[in-house]
Amino acid sequence: MDKILRPERLDTDPNSSGASKVWLHWKKTFQHFLAALNQERLDKLGVLTNYLSPNIYQYIEDCADYDSAMGILQELYVKPTNEVYARLDGRTYSSVCLSILPDLCSDVILGIDFPSQHACVVFKHGGPNPPLSVCGVSTLNTDPPRLFSNLTDDCHPISPVDIS
C-alpha cells in the first residue's frame, strides 16, 4: 500500500477547539485510503480501529459495524452550532461574536463585528474631561520584543555566570 494515502492515527480530543476541522480532514483522508485498498469483503471496522488511538477507540468499541462507528465519531466531533442573539437597548443582534467570561471586569466581550454595525460607540468612564472622539478601533498583532533587545552593546552582567 502506498504510504502517501495512509492516514495518521486519529488522536484529537473531541472537545478541543479545532476538533471538527481535524475530524473532517481525517475522515476524508481515511475514505480515500479505504477506496485505495479496493478489496472485496474488506473489514472496514477493523481498518478503522487500527487508525484510532485508544482514547478515541473507547467511543466506538461497542459498535458492530463500520457505519455505526463512523456515525458515532461524526456526532462526537461535529457539534451543532448554537445560534446566539444579543439584545441590547431594545435591539436584537443575530450572529454576533461574543464571549461570556464571568467574574472579570466585564462579563461579556463583544467581537469587532458588533460595534461595526453602529455609527459610533461611546465608552463612558466618568472622567472629568470632555468626550474624546476616536475615528476607528482595530486589532493589532505584533511579535513580542526580543529579550534584552533594548540594551546597548556596552551593557554587561554584574557577575559572570558559568553555564558549563
In short:
This protein is of the alpha+beta class. Helix content is 26%, strand content 9%. The protein has two domains: 19-77, no CATH class; 82-137, no CATH class.
Describe the structure.
This protein is α+β, with helices and mostly antiparallel strands and 164 residues long. It folds into two domains: 19-77, no CATH class; 82-137, no CATH class. It has helices at 19-37, 44-50, 54-57, 66-77; strands spanning 85-88, 91-94, 98-100, 108-110. Strands 1-2 form a two-stranded antiparallel ribbon. A hairpin with a 7-residue loop joins strand 3 and strand 4 (108-110). The protein is flat and about 80 Å long.
Question: Notable features of this structure?
Answer:
164 residues; alpha+beta; 2 domains; two-stranded antiparallel ribbon; 4 helices; flat
